[in-house]
Amino acid sequence: MKLQAFLDGELPEREAREILAWSQRDREAASLLAELRNIRQALAKSEPHLSHPESREFFWSKIEREIQRLKPHPVAAPPRSGFAALRRWLFPAVAVSALVIAGVIAYFQAPTAAVQTVADADAPTVETTLANSDATTYRDASEGTTLVLFSYATDDNPVKKPTAIN
Amino acid sequence: MSTSFFSATRLACAALGLLLLAGVTARAADKDLKLEAQLVVGSNDPQPKGPPVSPPVEKKLKRLPLKWGSYYVVSSQQFSLAKEASKPLVLGGSEMVVKNLGGERVELTLINRGKITQSLRKDQTLVTNVKDENSFVVLRQAD
């Protein structure tokens, strides 16, 4: 490692002199140093030499400025008026309340409303009180008239037919 | 469909409209019923038996499958009924009770005979027989 650092010129002067002296004394160290030098030269020839026209500090400061420029700036919210707040919260609240109230009213009106909307809702419901009585119903839809004729069987009239009917 | 169609203001207006409509409907359904009960007698005799029924009632009665050619008013009563209120009547010797069920529906109970439940809007008329074979009760909303 020290030989590599010596070749790269990274050793202090004193250590560099020691390494140089050692390589002159020791044949193995000298051959290793020569080999490393050859490798370094070979790599230096094959590596493309890239250089940047701008200084390192200037290059990074450019990147930093670009990041700052692209960073989204917080947009100041426009001042909200009282009417806007009213529109945003009170109106929907009123609408929901109104729908709930309308729903409740519709629920409680449902039995009569349903009767009024169904086409056959005008048909009367007829109940007879006596076991031997009967009722005949006639509806004139065009005039909106309902006729209910009650009758009941007697000794004189054993057939339960209303005598008034045609 | 744009989103503005469902804006809070329009939604609120629509809801308030519905609310008013529901309120008006509910109010109409629960108002008092002003009723008229007439005892009517039918006859084929050319001699009049009393004041004739009004032309609209006569038209309705003549369209029914009854065997009388003319109809005359024997007695007439007008009364108002609140919802769930009842009114006892005696017409043509028959006892009866009229009850306002609400929603323009009435219940006519003929004592010892039977009960009729019927919607009775302005354009509707309920006719039923009483003791005599040519006597009828005509129940409708008063004009």
Structure explained in plain terms:
The complex is a heterodimer of chains A (166) and B (143). Chain A has helices at residues 2-8, 13-25, 27-46, 56-70, 82-117, and strands spanning 125-128, 133-140, 145-152. With 166 residues, chain A is α+β, with helices and mostly antiparallel strands. In chain A, helix 2 (13-25) crosses helix 3. The N and C termini of chain A lie far apart (132 Å). The termini of chain B are far apart. Chain B folds into 2 domains: 1-30; 32-141, no CATH class. Chain B is 22% helix and 42% strand. Chain B has helices at 8-30, 55-62, and strands at 33-43, 70-81, 86-91, 94-100, 105-110, 114-119, 125-129, 135-141. Chain B is elongated, with a radius of gyration of 21 Å. The chains are: A alpha+beta (166), B alpha+beta (143). Chains A and B meet through helix 5, strand 1, strand 2 and strand 3 of A and helix 1, helix 2, strand 6 and strand 7 of B.
In short:
The complex is a heterodimer of chains A (166) and B (143). With 166 residues, chain A is of the alpha+beta class. Chain A has helices spanning 2-8, 13-25, 27-46, 56-70, 82-117, and strands at residues 125-128, 133-140, 145-152.
Topology:
The complex is a heterodimer of chains A (166) and B (143).
Chain A: H1 2-8, H2 13-25, H3 27-46, H4 56-70, H5 82-117, E1 125-128, E2 133-140, E3 145-152
Antiparallel strand pairs in A: 2-3
Chain B: H1 8-30, E1 33-43, H2 55-62, E2 70-81, E3 86-91, E4 94-100, E5 105-110, E6 114-119, E7 125-129, E8 135-141
Antiparallel strand pairs in B: 1-2, 1-8, 3-4, 4-5, 5-6, 7-8
